[in-house]
Amino acid sequence: MPLATKILWSIVGVFGALAYGLAIGGVIRKVMARIQGRIGPPVWQPYIDLGKNLSLRTATHHGVMSFIAPIFRAAGGIGVFLLVPVVIGVPALENFSFSGDLLMVMYFIFFGSLGMALGAAEAGHPHSPIGISRGLAQMSSYELPFALAVVALAAQAGSFSIREIILAQQGGWLHWNLFANPLAAAAAFLAFLGMNMYAPFNIVGAPQEIPVGPPTEFNSQFLSLLMVGRATFAVAKIVLYMDLFLGGAHSLPEALVKTFLIYFWSIFVGAVFPRFRTEQSIRFFLGWPTLAGIAGVLLVIFSH
Q: How many folded domains does the chain comprise?
């Protein structure tokens, strides 16, 4: 496929990921409301919020880095998505995957969060250091089991290429890494709960505790960039997990079903468990998920 055509399809894919991310965000808000006995907002409310924020302007100035932070957040989500194949075997939907792209994806996962930390630090709010310390501490703790799971899968497939890991899972659902290496899958899916930052791991925003955060520190078009980054990053993560553990997808409907089920896993847990304290969250990720990741690596070593 010519490079210009591939770039065009990738741009279309980014907008498709944004639309899908906003859609599942609206559906999940509706589901959570029903679980809690509320009616909840309409499922199209995220689209309304994004359009409203895009039409607004702001005169508030917190410093250059606080304005760059939403760009970092959006760039992190878009960067991860552009490196992850969505539908294998369809060049238009494989994005810019290449040999060793899994390592680049792991770096990009950090990109948006670190940018937001720098932006929050410059805002000067007294609660900002609390959110930064909580967020970076939890991020470091859940990245450990996720990194161990990635090492296990790369050793199992003999490559750090996401496409090669997908191809190694072909031949039926029993070949998926979810079943071929359940220990690594357990470590990664427990780490996924921290990545999404729903309960019990929503310690950064800390609902009913810290009445500040990106929705109040940022507004207008800056808040719209945060919404773009959050929606696109959510889709990029669930597509990545689909590729790593569920054998990828050979059609767009298959991708939609698998990714929605992966995303709903964190929502189900968030609806059942209350929020952890910071030290409880870190202790959790450094406990069973990390042990499962180590066991997943050992399983690959001894099975070969």
A: 1
